[in-house]
Amino acid sequence: WSGSYEHFRNIRVRFLGQVYAGNRVTARGTVREVSTADDRTRVVLDVWLDNEDGTKVLSGIATLELPTSQ
Q1: Among 2, 58, 3, which Cα is nearest to 25's?
Q2: Of 60, 62, 69, 63, which Cα lies nearest the Cα of 42?
Q3: What pLDDT score does 70 carry?
Q4: Order of strands, edge to edge, in the sheet holding 56-67?
Q5: Band of the pLDDT at 67, cuts 50, 70, 90?
Q6: Three-state SS string across the chain, please?
Q7: Confidence check: pLDDT of 35 > 60
Q8: Long-range CB contacts for residues 22-30, cutoff 8 Å, separation at least 24
Q9: What's the CA angle centered on 56, arms 64 and 45, to 5 degrees?
Q10: Cα–chain-centroid distance for residue 7?
């Protein structure tokens, strides 16, 4: 939904568990904060990965900067 990777400004993650080749993980996230300044919208997200049994194996925060729609 963010478009190109160039919108990512920062991502900080912490590994909470082991993930091995062949494991399935699901990426998830929620919006923590949205702010607008000039012609840009800054979005801060809580992000995480769940493994096959629903255990969180990675968590972090991602910051994106998107062009504001006209």
Answers
A1: 58
A2: 63
A3: 53
A4: 8-15, 56-67, 40-50, 26-37
A5: confident
A6: CCCCHHHEEEEEEEECCCCCCCCCCEEEEEEEEEEEECCEEEEEEEEEEECCCCCEEEEEEEEEEEECCC
A7: yes
A8: 23/51, 23/52, 24/51, 24/52, 25/49, 25/50, 25/51, 25/52, 25/57, 25/58, 26/50, 29/62
A9: 15
A10: 12
Mean pLDDT of 23-50: 95
Question: What pLDDT shows up at residue 42?
Answer: 94
Per the listing, tokens 């993980």 go with 25
Q: Which residue has the tokens 């979005």?
A: 43
Is pLDDT at 3 greater than 70 in this prediction? Answer: no
